Amino acid sequence: MKLTILGCYSATPRTLNNPTAQVLEIKNHLFLIDCGEGTQVQLRKSKLKFSRIKHIFISHLHGDHFFGLPGLVSTFRLLGREKELHIYGPKGIKEAITLLLKLGDSWTNYPLYFHELEGREPQIVYEDEKVKVSTIPLDHRIYTNGFLFQEKQGARTLNVEAAKVWEVDKSQFNNIKAGKHVVLEDGTIVDNKELTFDPPKPKSYAFCSDTMYKEDIVPIIKKADLLYHESTFLESEQELAVKTKHSTAKEAAEIAKQAQVGKLILGHYSTRYKSLEVFKKEAQTVFTAVDLAEDGKSFVV
After folding, report:
1. Helix, strand, or coil here: 231?
2. Residue 257 — pLDDT band, cuts 50, 70, 90?
3. Three-state SS for 148?
4. Which residues lie closer than 8 Å to 258 by C-beta, 6 or more apart?
């Protein structure tokens, strides 16, 4: 599982930094999460193939999280895309994107599907045999969701050496891979677990931006391998965080600690701060496993 940060600042683009956008590579999927201005350029800089993006998840309809989407949808058309594209986001996102396509007389020549969200409880929005994606209801000035990406439990793999020890015939290997027990010639039943390796532990990633401090998301993101949690402000501006319904670095760390996540990634920084290290230092007073989101930076689990 690999997370690449395309943009990590709040509100407006800067000379060297971009608003929120991320790409998650998981089980052969390339999921785009939020799409602020500059996303296309950042995708090219990161050498990520546009054609691999089939699912885009938009947290909310503030411009710094989706103003890059109309351009990306249009670029897909110009590149001759034929594969379908699915966009998951708040109700209204279809109207916003299709209006621009209509006014520009530039309808896509590929299937474009919108999955509009209104629910206030966690819900599964995408699922296949390998991955499940669920919403994380957040508390912001407008309707907002985070997203939880979870690998599904993989299959057990054949332990050839154990099969030899039990003198299991190769003709039984496919049955073992299918999860079946083996009955030897003398009637002995060999449990499948004796002949297979445990699958790797499924990985998970929780994306939480934008939101004020919200403890009831803790059970949803419990023990996620990675947690991205917005930290727009420091505790010294806590009153401003409450007013704008954002979080501080310390509050993000509190959520990470309670949820017992593997690592906390901070982001969505206000441009008022000259150094990002102050965010990390503040968060580490509560939770030690903290890293900083930066444009172009990747995290691998």
Report:
1. coil
2. very high
3. strand
4. 215, 218
What CA–CA distance (Å, rounded) separates 237 from 250? 11
Q: Enter the DSSP assignment of 236.
A: G
Q: Which helix (H) or strand (E) holds 21?
A: strand 21-26
CA 66/CA 222 separation, integer angstroms: 28
Q: Are strands 196-197 and 157-158 parallel, antiparallel or unpaired?
A: antiparallel
Report DSSP state, residue 269. B
Active site residues: 64
Name the token pair of 23. 């790409």
Strand partners, 228: 207, 265
Token pair in block for residue 66: 């989706």
- Inter-residue contact 134 to 204 (CB < 8 Å): no
What is the pTM assigned to this prediction? 0.92
pLDDT in tens, 78-124: 999 999 999 999 999 999 999 999 999 999 999 999 999 999 999 99
Radius of gyration of the chain (CA): 22
Q: Measure CA of the first residue to CA of the last residue in the chain; give whole Å.
A: 5
Helices (H), the chain: 39-45, 63-66, 69-78, 93-103, 160-165, 173-177, 218-221, 238-244, 249-259, 277-283
Looking up tokens 């785009």 gives: 32
DSSP 8-state code for residue 217: G
C-alpha–C-alpha distance, residues 270 and 255, integer Å: 20
Cα–Cα dist 255/213, whole Å: 8
* Tokens at 283, concatenated: 């968060």
